[in-house]
Amino acid sequence: MPYKKTQIGWLIIGIFLPILFIFYLAYENQWGSDPIPLDSFKAIVLIFVIIVALFYKLSIEIDGRVLKLSYGIGLIRIKFKIDQLEEVQVIKTPWYNGLGIRFTSKGMLYNIHGLKAVRIKYISNGKSKSVMVGTAEPERLKEALEESFL
Q1: Where are the domains of the chain?
Q2: How far, rounded to the nearest angstrom, does the alpha carbon of residue 142 sit from its chain's CA centroid?
Q3: pLDDT string in tens for the chain (150-residue length)
Q4: In which element (H, E) is residue 113 found?
Q5: What CA–CA distance (Å, rounded) separates 81 from 115?
Q6: Which sequence ranges are marked TM in the entry (predicted)?
Q7: Which pTM value belongs to this model?
Q8: In sequence order, what DSSP letters do the residues of 62-97 get, joined into one string?
Q9: Helices assigned H by DSSP within the chain
Q10: Cα dihedral across residues 70, 76, 82, 85: positive or negative
């Protein structure tokens, strides 16, 4: 079963864009006793724009025997070649695991929002591996993985 889903990271957008707006107002109105210099303002804006561009969305796709993840504008792409699927389960991730690409005690977690993920245990090139993919529709991703690989 082909599967492709793109989810928007509204939390990332909702946090970084207002902060950028506040920095703009602080620079434009020269707030405080030590206002933001132009070079510092440009550096802050550039860093925030890069972060938002890299992580504003997550696309998940099953293509043949490969699970593909792509963040933001597509500079960050991760591919998992799955020879054999061992186990797929819907899990709840703790809030402190955060967003983005994370090392956790249960393996790598790739997510953009929410507290639900699909834990995938699989075999690739003879090695057993595990990964967690956060999604707004974990049951649908689980079904697609089971139909594609079992």
Answers
A1: 8-54, 60-149
A2: 18
A3: 679 999 999 999 999 999 999 999 999 999 988 888 999 999 999 999 999 999 999 999 999 889 999 999 999 999 999 999 999 999 999 999 988 999 998 889 999 988 999 999 999 999 999 999 999 999 999 999 999 887
A4: none
A5: 25
A6: 7-27, 39-58
A7: 0.87
A8: EETTEEEEEETTTTEEEEEE-SEEEEEEEEE--GGG
A9: 10-29, 38-55, 138-149
A10: negative
Kindly state the DSSP code that residue 59 receives in the 8-state scheme.
E
- Spell out the residues 6+ positions from residue 148 whose beta carbon is closer than 8 angstroms to its own: 1, 3, 62, 65
Q: How far apart are CA 26 and CA 20, in angstroms?
A: 10
DSSP class of residue 98 equals: -
